[in-house]
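Support request from a user on the community tier.

User writes: "When I paste my structure tokens into the form, the page sometimes reloads and wipes my input. The last time it worked, I copied everything first. Here is what I submitted, just in case something in the input itself triggers the reload:"
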């Protein structure tokens, strides 16, 4: 019975944000309510109670690093925003447009693991706003850069909620889950993929147009908005940690028994649900390395296909006015190609 209740909770989390705009716009609070419900439900079964001091401590302390990084880099970025804008056009002219596109996409992916995916996405929006290229190419450029950011950010636990949750969920098992664990585990797959995406962005470089024909962000962020975003990130990550604990009976009963190559394709659902949410539900310290790789790589790649799949997508689409349809037309084919390519590399090489 408890598994049916948890399956109902998972279905609600999966579909309700897609159907109700108000929930989509208040996703952090919604996930917190559902996380409390899931943990309370699973509290009724199992040898150990789901609610514990250890879980409360983990859920309260683990989000601090990424939310603090979001706050600090957000304030710094706001202070130097105008200086950054002035340098973008100069750098593009000195580097050449194609090399500038290549180095920008790759660099944003790499530094996102340090400055967080959220700040990398904000820098991306400033770069795109400063360019005077045709709207179609700027949309492609933005989506490719978000793929790169989403991939690079997972290499450290402060990069984005997915990596933060993954590290928290894998503690307590047989693995040495240190700061560089994910870099060692999937870095050899992620970095070549980022290079490919950056190369594609350089080769597809668009033409110069008048400013109204380009993408541009709608408003400059205030310090209040920056602080509010950091608070939302804290609540978001805390909710995902609680969700992972709440879904433990489901994970133990079904997910941990699936082979890595099945989990890889199952996680294409990350395209419509933030990949950190799925990581919270699926990852377990009892999984083998193949299963962990399958979960992580499936989540990372498919998370770039649609706007809801990843935080950089949501920020960039909102600030630059990219529609869900425009994103899907570009993001889905790129994501499917990369899913197929990585599947061959992971399981047939």
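"...and here is what came back when it finally went through:"
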């Amino acid at each position: 019975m408890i598994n049916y209740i948890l399956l109902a909770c998972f279905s609600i989390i999966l579909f309700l944000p897609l159907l109700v705009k108000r929930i989509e716009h208040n996703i952090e609070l919604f996930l917190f309510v559902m996380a409390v419900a899931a943990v309370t439900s699973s509290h009724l079964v199992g040898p150990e109670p789901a609610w514990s001091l250890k879980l409360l401590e983990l859920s309260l302390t683990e989000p601090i690093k990424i939310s603090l990084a979001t706050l600090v880099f957000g304030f710094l970025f706001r202070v130097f925003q105008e200086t950054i804008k002035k340098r973008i056009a100069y750098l593009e002219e000195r580097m050449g447009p194609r090399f500038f596109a290549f180095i920008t996409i790759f660099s944003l992916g790499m530094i996102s693991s340090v400055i967080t995916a959220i700040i990398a996405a904000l820098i991306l929006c400033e770069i795109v706003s400063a360019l005077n290229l045709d709207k179609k190419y700027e949309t492609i450029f933005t989506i490719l850069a978000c793929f790169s950011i989403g991939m690079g950010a997972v290499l450290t636990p402060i990069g984005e909620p997915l990596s933060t949750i993954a590290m928290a969920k894998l503690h307590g098992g047989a693995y040495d889950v240190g700061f560089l664990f994910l870099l060692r585990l999937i870095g050899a797959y992620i970095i070549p993929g980022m290079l490919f995406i950056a190369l594609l962005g350089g080769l597809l470089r668009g033409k110069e147009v008048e400013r109204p024909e380009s993408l541009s962000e709608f408003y400059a962020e205030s310090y209040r908005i920056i602080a509010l975003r950091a608070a939302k990130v804290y609540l978001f990550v805390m909710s995902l940690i609680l969700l992972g604990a709440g879904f433990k009976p489901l994970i133990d009963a079904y997910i941990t028994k699936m082979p890595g190559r099945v989990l890889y394709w199952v996680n294409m659902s990350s395209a419509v649900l933030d990949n950190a949410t799925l990581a919270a539900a699926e990852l377990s310290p009892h999984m083998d390395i193949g299963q962990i790789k399958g979960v992580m790589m499936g989540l990372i790649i498919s998370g770039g296909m649609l706007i809801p799949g990843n935080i950089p997508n949501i920020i960039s689409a909102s600030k630059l006015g990219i529609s869900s349809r425009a994103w899907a037309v570009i993001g889905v084919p790129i994501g499917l190609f990369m899913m197929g390519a990585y599947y061959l590399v992971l399981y047939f090489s």
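Agent notes: The reload is a front-end session timeout and is unrelated to the input. The chain has a mean pLDDT of 82. The chain has one domain: 2-348. Escalated to web team.
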